[in-house]
Write a structure and sequence with these properties.
heterodimer; A: mainly beta; four-stranded antiparallel beta sheet; globular; B: mainly beta; seven-stranded mixed beta sheet; 0% helix
Chain lengths: 119, 114
């Protein structure tokens, strides 16, 4: 079974600064996907960024980038130029690549990091 | 806006009662998953439906059941409600997600059991 650990329950950052959220995971799989989701107070889970484990290049999406260390099973999220709208709970999630349909798309989530961006 | 809609948004039930939560998936998506998110925790996988059949289940008892309809919308049913069932229930839809296709979440249904 896979586990995802987010060791920072809460973090804060000043507007316009950079913050890094940590995530580690445990799996015996070789092919899988990793995600960061944002959940604002409205509670809708929104995909921020995804990483395919077979790709060595770290994924980036505008102000968001990841540091993927496959051997260390680490997947951190860096938010640059933090904005007030980034205030939310952030979840790291794991999904294994499957050939059959069984459990395809099953994601394992960490318990989240609450990020507060201060003006 | 993800195209995934859930109803009702909030509801209160009494212990022992039954509840049905509904989800309309995004157009073109044939896979629907349900998650339970307790306060302060990450979502926990309940089960998944693919083309109207359950094809994966997490560590939830049989009183959690579901359906998927030909239009790929879905229902989550919970019987004999317990206080610990109080949580946000999230529906997520995707095309077959084995290859990592993006999963789109609805806004959830808040269930309070008293």
């Amino acid at each position: 079974a896979q586990t995802v650990t987010q060791s920072q329950p809460e973090m804060s950052v000043q507007e316009a600064e950079t913050v890094t959220l940590s995530c580690t995971y445990d799996t015996s799989e070789n092919n899988y996907y990793l995600f960061w989701y944002k959940q604002p107070p409205s509670r809708q889970m929104i995909l921020v960024i995804r990483q395919e484990a077979y790709k060595q290049q770290n994924a980036t999406e505008n102000r968001f980038s990841v540091n993927f260390q496959k051997a260390a099973k680490s997947f951190s999220l860096k938010i640059s130029d933090s904005q007030l709208g980034d205030t939310a709970m952030y979840f790291c999630a794991f999904m294994k690549h499957v050939r059959s349909t069984t459990n395809a798309g099953k994601s394992t989530f960490g318990d989240g990091t609450t990020l507060t961006v201060k003006p | 806006e993800t195209g995934v809609t859930q109803s009702p948004t909030h509801l209160i039930k009494t212990r022992g009662q039954q509840v049905t939560l509904r989800c309309s998936s995004q157009s073109g998506h044939n896979t629907v998953s349900w998650y339970q998110q307790a306060l302060g925790q990450g979502p926990q996988f309940i089960f998944q439906y693919y083309r109207e059949e359950e094809n994966g289940r997490g560590n939830f008892p049989p009183r959690f059941s579901g359906l998927q309809f030909p239009n790929y919308s879905s229902e989550l049913n919970v019987n004999a409600l317990e206080l610990d069932d109080s949580a946000l229930y999230l529906c997520a839809s995707s095309r077959w997600a084995g290859s990592g296709n993006t999963i789109y979440f609805g806004e959830g249904s808040w269930l309070t059991v008293v």
